[in-house]
Design a protein that fits this description.
By secondary structure, the protein is an alpha/beta fold. The chain contains 4 helices and 7 strands, in the order αβαβαββαβββ. It has helices at about 1-15, 40-50, 65-70, 95-105; strands at about 30-35, 55-60, 80-85, 85-90, 110-115, 135-140, 145-150. It has a 7-stranded mixed sheet, covered by helices on one side. The longest helix has 14 residues, at about 1-15.
Amino acid sequence: MKDRFILILIIGSLLSPTLTYAEFNISHKITVYKNPKCGCCKKWISYLKRKNYDVTTINSNNHSAYKKKFGVPARYASCHTAVIDGYVIEGHVTDRDIQRLLLLRPEGVTGITVPGMLVGTPGMEQGDRRQSYNVLSFDRQGNVKIFSRHKN
């Protein structure tokens, strides 16, 4: 019975734009590894702070070492890498996608990524301009699947 109730809550939360993930006591402590001179990384961190994340920033001129350490597939890399509650977040991922990952905890998934530098993603805002894009999940073997879709 309890499992069914939790499943109903999960489905409802994914369908309801007004339900917040804070109600599920999901972690908001995140560590971001970035180049100290990257402006869009700073904007993404500001976005996370506005969403009440407790952000620890580690500046590195060799952040590709962190991508390798955390198993980010090279072809799906972006400008910064973050770790939250054992999951890797690569690139300009939305708060909603991060919280969905932490809520669902898909089996075998190492993390999620928004590859590249897409206009309209958090930290890459350019007025009303937006690109459609997919958020991908990845595993330790480098396999990827579509985790969510964002239409412009």
